Every structure is written in structure tokens, then in C-alpha cells.
TrEMBL record:
Record note on quaternary structure: Monomer.
Organism of provenance: Methylomonas aurea
Keywords in alphabetical order: Cytoplasm, Glycosyltransferase, Queuosine biosynthesis, S-adenosyl-L-methionine, Transferase
Gene behind this protein: queA
The protein, known as: S-adenosylmethionine:tRNA ribosyltransferase-isomerase
Subcellular location: Cytoplasm
Length: 339
């Protein structure tokens, strides 16, 4: 298939700029995986659409305040987006500046911090933080939540909480696993009371998730890499769900990528590493039976993954229905369940 096959027209006003007042107040489009039939529901209807035998798989990554601002020695403004913290003192980052900083130069930040530019690695810069302070501590002190490019506003204090899942635990993402944003503690408790089991994987979402596919031929696209971790306890939970006749329900495309990356040997196995798995129609899923997700950008790798999980024509028809029914799109928008 081609990149243009995944294009659709979205009215700009349907891009959610803020979350709803309550996490669990979103609408949810339910799509039957076999027939492609859709129905308009509320997120809380998830309780009746899932079975007590099912297993929910969440991504427990935690968004770091990865955007910082500074100045070069020349006085020029610099915007830094940390892509990955390598160790206590070093990070890989994207840098926006009128001229790219050279190796050996310094970038002065707020509160007396500074980064030394070590060098360049492809489209990323390696930065070092001198002194005893760690990179994560610096970001916690002066960093900003890195809202996606389609949210046309500066980050606000409320984003510190709302652009983060209530179960976030392992710091390292620069974008939220947005399907998880709908779940509040009340909903988690209600799912547990129904008897649903849950488990966690980790996939640190990188800024590459927003990187446009620049080639029409999808076989020529190079997928960005993201760190993932799948524990033995999660492997065991998946096996137990299958044994009792339940479904493995991935909460978000990031949970799908983690599970399927850990299944490249043919079945799910515990593992830790980087994944550049690119899922497009024709891919055979090994570890996921149902998908709860948000609506995704036109021509994005995430929409391609969703179209691989269900029938392509049915997914694109569902998106047209969502637009006609004025669903809210993207990170702070409404949800979709494919089961």
C-alpha cells in the first residue's frame, strides 16, 4: 500500500486542543473487528464491551518535561527537545536554532544550567550536563511538557497532570501513550471489580511518533526506534488470559508495538531493547486480540498500524463516520475500541 492510501481530510476544529474536564467523559467509537460495523458509545461503555476473562495491557511509561529553552553564546535562541536520556549526565536531543550549534559549544539554560554539545548523531545532538545535577533533575526543574505539534498552544500547568496517565511509572517518554489518558482511578477500580485483569508493558514514546512518512512507497520508510520492555509477569498474564478464553486488549498502539516486538520469534517472550517495528496492512498479529486507541493523524504510522489490525476499508470508513459525528481527534480527543 501507499502512504496516500492513509490520507483523510480532518476539519481543524476537530483537533482537541484541551482535554475534557473529566478523563473518563470521552466518547468512544466501537468497531466490530469482523464486520466493520460501528456504533457510537461513551468511554465508560468499555465496562460492558469487555469480558471478565479479558486482559488489559497498559503502557506504564511516564512523560518527562523534555522541552527546554536556552541561548547560545552568541545570544541566539535555542529550543531543545530531549529524545532520550542516555545516562545521568548525557542525552540525545533535537535542537531548533537559527544555526546548528557546533561540538564543544555551550547552551545556557534557565536557573544557571547549561548543556555542552558533544557532537551530532544523525539528526540528533548529544548533550552533556556538567556538574552533579542529572538530566532528569534538570528537566524536572526547568523543563516543559512537550505537547504534540498539532496542539497549537503553549503547555500549561494543567498539562503536567493531564498529559500523563494515572498509572505512569517509568520516566522516559516524550509523548504520552494517549489511549491511557482516558482511564481514571474510578474506571480502573470498576474494571477490576468486574474481574478484569491488567498488566503493564513499557514503551518510551519518542518524538518520531509524530514524524511524517516522507516516502510514498511504505517499504522505503525507516521507522524510528523506541525503547520497550516486556516482563515475564506480563508474558504469564497473557498466557493465562488465553488459557481462560479471554482476549488480550492492548490499550494504545504503543502497547501493541511493545507486545508485538516481544513476539517476533513467533510467540510472546520477555525482553528489553529498542524496537523499530513498522506494522502495516498484511502484518499478522501474534499477541493482541482487541485494541483500544485514539484517532490518529492522516498518513501516520499509527493509522497504518490500526488499519493492519482491522480491515483497511472498514477503518477508513470508521474515520469518516467519526468526522461526520464530530468526534474529537488526537491526543486529547475521543477514543476507539476495535474488538
Amino acid at each position: 500500500m501507499k502512504k496516500s492510501d492513509f490520507n483523510y481530510r480532518l476539519p481543524e476544529e476537530l483537533i482537541a486542543q484541551y482535554p475534557l474536564a473529566e478523563r473518563s467523559a470521552s466518547r468512544m467509537l466501537h468497531m466490530d473487528k469482523l464486520s466493520g460495523a460501528v456504533s457510537d458509545r461513551q468511554f465508560t461503555d468499555l465496562l460492558e464491551l469487555l469480558s471478565a476473562d479479558d486482559l488489559l495491557v497498559f503502557n506504564d511509561t511516564k512523560v518527562i518535561p523534555a522541552r527546554v529553552f536556552g541561548r547560545k553564546a552568541s545570544g541566539g535562541k535555542v529550543e531543545i527537545l530531549i529524545e532520550r536520556i542516555e545516562d545521568q549526565q548525557q542525552a540525545l536531543a533535537h535542537i531548533k536554532a537559527s544555526k546548528s550549534p557546533k561540538a564543544g559549544s555551550r547552551i545556557e539554560l534557565e536557573a544557571g544550567y547549561c548543556f555542552e554539545v558533544v557532537g551530532r548523531e544523525a539528526d540528533l545532538f548529544r548533550l552533556r550536563l556538567p556538574g552533579p545535577t542529572g538530566v532528569l533533575d534538570l528537566l524536572t526543574d526547568v523543563g516543559h511538557i512537550p505537547l504534540p505539534p498539532y496542539i497549537d498552544r503553549n503547555d500549561e500547568n494543567s498539562d503536567l497532570e493531564r498529559y500523563q496517565t494515572v498509572f505512569a511509572e517509568r520516566a522516559g517518554a516524550v509523548a504520552a501513550p494517549t489511549a491511557g489518558l482516558h482511564f481514571d482511578q474510578t474506571m480502573l477500580d470498576r474494571l477490576e471489580q468486574k474481574g478484569l485483569q491488567r498488566t503493564f508493558v513499557t514503551l518510551h514514546v519518542g518524538s518520531g511518533t509524530f514524524r511524517p512518512v516522507r516516502v510514498e512507497d511504505l517499504s522505503q520508510h525507516t521507522m524510528h526506534k523506541e525503547f520497550y520492555s516486556v516482563s515475564q509477569s506480563t508474558v504469564d498474564a497473557v498466557a493465562a488470559a488465553r488459557a481462560r478464553g479471554g482476549r488480550v486488549v492492548a490499550v494504545g498502539t504503543t502497547a501493541v508495538r511493545a507486545l508485538e516486538s516481544a513476539s517476533t520469534g513467533g510467540q510472546l517472550a520477555a525482553g528489553v531493547g529498542d524496537t523499530d517495528l513498522f506494522i502495516t496492512p498484511g502484518y499478522r498479529f501474534k499477541s493482541v486480540d482487541a485494541l483500544f486507541t485514539n484517532f490518529h493523524l492522516p498518513e501516520s504510522t499509527l493509522l497504518m498500524l490500526v488499519s493492519a489490525f482491522a480491515d483497511y476499508d472498514a477503518v477508513m470508513a470508521a474515520y469518516r463516520h467519526a468526522i461526520e459525528q464530530r468526534y474529537r481527534f488526537f491526543s486529547y480527543g475521543d477514543a476507539m475500541l476495535i474488538s
